Amino acid sequence: MKIAIIGNGILGLMTARAWLRSGINVEISIIGRQSRPGSATRAAAAMLNSFAELEYDSLSTPLDRFKFDLSRAATAAWPAVFEDICPTGGDVTFGFGTYMLNNSATDSLDDDNFNAVREFAAEFAEPCEDVDPRDIPNYHPDPRYRALRALLLKREGWVNPKQFLDALQAKLATNQRVTFIDTEVSKLDMGGGKIRGAELADGSRLEADAFVLANGANLSRLAGELGLPIQRVFYGIGMSIEMQSAENIHTHCVRTTNRGLACGVYSVPYGPDRTLIGASNYISPIPHDHAHVGSAYTLLKAAMDQINNKFYRANLISVNVGWRPTTSDTYPLIGKTSLENLWIIGGTKRDGFHLSPVICADLVTSMQGKSVDERYAQLAPERSLIRNLTREEAISKTVRHQINAAFQHDFSPARNRMLEQLERNIRTDLESLHDRVGAAEWGIPPELTDMYRYHHIPGTA
Ligand SMILES: Cc1cc2nc3c(=O)[nH]c(=O)nc-3n(C[C@H](O)[C@H](O)[C@H](O)COP(=O)(O)OP(=O)(O)OC[C@H]3O[C@@H](n4cnc5c(N)ncnc54)[C@H](O)[C@@H]3O)c2cc1C
């Protein structure tokens, strides 16, 4: 059996690994430029976070609980993955233990999310303890932004994704059944209810028995031409910054809660004298090779204010920009399409690296015709948009996130009714947007407000 995997990010490579581990005799081609343009994987932290990613309302639906089950299974899976790919550590920097801060850099949304993480950790008996923020190694915030509470999530880790991807690719390449093809797929040739072949950018053509589309935020570029009812995937343009300093060596991941439409600010160990800080998020219908100067300003300032004010004298090594694959309903796309030999894995937004050992293995299991958790059906690539927020929930949540984001971006309201007026204005704007797109019974996910506003996602009006 020949399998073509389109895309060479973490999901493409972990899918190949899962096939090799299945024991079935397959030939695998992985297509993608070695430079990996726009790769989310290479820009990631990559934090292996599960509880640290939770917000106060994260587990309110059965589908969210399913996604969280996958995330917890991934936490359990990572130690064995490291044992397999980089048993001695070698060139791959990774570790476990994430400090979560509750500071006053923005408003009370942080407090609610911090409390929620703590409560969910207790509910699921996750190893976690309260710590005095002053005991966090190399935590030197500006005093005005210091945390008064902190948690240590003991099993939540991180890995340098570039080093890991290299090690994973090197291991896959030692297997004669795996071929890496350094180009892009420019078109999928469909006929007779299946994919007949892939046309490559170098003019050649690749045929296979099964195709896996794992090309990240570019998914709609190929899938869109097939005429299948697959929702649009957007580019969640994110920036992370690599720093070098011998005096600010971070031994653990240090991060805030998720906040204001993004994942907060964090630092992770990235090498013996390297630290990565992240991350920005700007959702766009088109790809951008570079991120905004304003994002770099906010990120550097937040990292110096909230994590380590000595970062000012670290060396700035590089700015990574990657595209988080962000679906029109914010949930991943995993499973078989209505074409008999086309499978999709993608749309994993900001936790795809962490989820990869579990969702890639499950995809391969289902490609073999074996059963997987039946809740995966809800993530089927040709589903209708999942709309599990009510209009009121969505509007209230978006108002909160936008105000929280404003405080993160130096907003300082006048000592009058300015804040209330601003909240009212945002709410009025969102109500009229919901009216315009026909969102009476459902709500627009906060991060996708502008994708609805500018007609990139159709409403129901
Ligand atoms: C700044 C940032 C921080 C993040 N932090 C974390 C984190 O801490 N933890 C976490 O779990 N996740 C994190 N993420 C999210 C995570 O990186 C993604 O969910 C995950 O990497 C998606 O993997 P992928 O393989 O689908 O996509 P990608 O890594 O984008 O890989 C897709 C690959 O396909 C290639 N490709 C595109 N088009 C074609 C084509 N036509 N033919 C062939 N190849 C093609 C691309 O060049 C790319 O190499 C972060 C993302 C960003 C941007």
From TrEMBL:
Protein name, UniProt field: FAD-dependent oxidoreductase
Domain FAD dependent oxidoreductase residues, every copy: 2-364
Domain of life: Bacteria
Family recorded in the similarity comment: Belongs to the DadA oxidoreductase family.
Signal peptide feature range: none
Cofactor list: FAD
Keyword Flavoprotein tagged: yes
Source organism of this protein record: Herbaspirillum chlorophenolicum
UniProt keyword Flavoprotein, yes or no: yes
Keywords: Flavoprotein, Oxidoreductase
